[in-house]
Amino acid sequence: MKTKLKLLLIWLIALSVVIFTSYQAYCRYQDIALKKMLLEKRKAAWSDLEIKLKQRALSFKGTVGLVVKDLDTGWQIDLNQGRLMPSASLVKIPIMLAFFYADREGKVSLKKELYLKNNDKVAGSKVLGNLPTGSRFTVEELFNPMITQSDNAAANALISLMGFDKLNDYFKRIGLKNTNLARKMMDFSRRKSGVENYTTAADCAYLFDQLYAGNFLSEDVSRRCLEILGGQKINDRIPRKLPKASVFVAHKTGLERHICHDVGIVFTPKGDFLICVLVKHGDKTARNAKKLIANIALLTYNYYCNN
Predict the structure, then answer these.
(1) pTM (global) more than 0.85
(2) What gap in Å lies between CA 247 and CA 230, rounded to an integer?
(3) Which of 71, 108, 123, 295 has the fewest CB atoms inside 10 Å of its own CB, making it the most exposed?
C-alpha cells in the first residue's frame, strides 16, 4: 500500500512538473506571439509614417534631404540623404567635435585661451558680437554660444584657431563623408564666388547616431556634446509643435538665405528618434521651410504616441 502511495505521489509530482513546464512554454509562446503582433503593427505604422513624411517632403517647393531613424529598432526613413546641401550653421557641430578630438590627442586643449579678433565679429553673433575686440575665452567656453545661440563670431574664432585644413582632416577622421569647411561664417563674398560649406542629411544623421550611442571618443564626451546640443535656444523648427513638458530635444539649426535646416534627437517617454531635415528653397523667407520641419517632427512624434 505504501509503495502504491509513493508511486502515486511521484506520478502526481511528475504530472505537476509537466503541467507547469507546459504552462510556462504556453505563456512564453503567447508572449512571443503578442510581441510579434505588436512589432508587425508598429512596422505597419512606420510604413504609413514613411509615406506621410515623403509626401510632405516631395510636395514642398524646394529640395529636402531627410533622415528619420527609430533609435530602438534601427528602422530608417530617408529621402535625398546623400544630396549635397549648403550646411549653414550645421557645420558648427563637427567644428565642436573636431576640438574634442584634438583635445583627446593633445593637439589643442579645450582650456586653451584665445582672443576675439575684429574680423571674427560678423552678423549673427548675438553673444560675442557686442564684446570688445581682444576679449578672452577658452575653447570650450565658445562651444555653448556657437551651438545654443549659433553665434558666428564664436565659430569664426575657433576656425581661426585650428584652420580649414586641420578641421577638414578631423571631419574625415570623425567619419564624415561629404561635409567640408571652405569659408567662415557669413563670408558671402566667397559664397558668391562659388566657395561653399556642404553637408548631407546622411552625414548629420551619422554624427547624432554616434553621439546617442556614446561612440564619439567616449561615452562621457558623447554625453557632454549632447548636453550642449540640448541647450539649444533656437527652437522654431523640430521642437516647435512638440510638448515641452514630456519631450527633450538635442539639436542644431542652420539658416541662411534659401537654406533652412534642423537636425537632432528627440527623446520621448515612448522611444527616441533621430531627425535630420535639410531644406533648400526659393522663398523670400524661411517660414514655409520651418513649418515643414516642424510638421515632419510632429508627425514622427505622433507615431510614438500611438504605437
Answers:
(1) yes
(2) 11
(3) 123
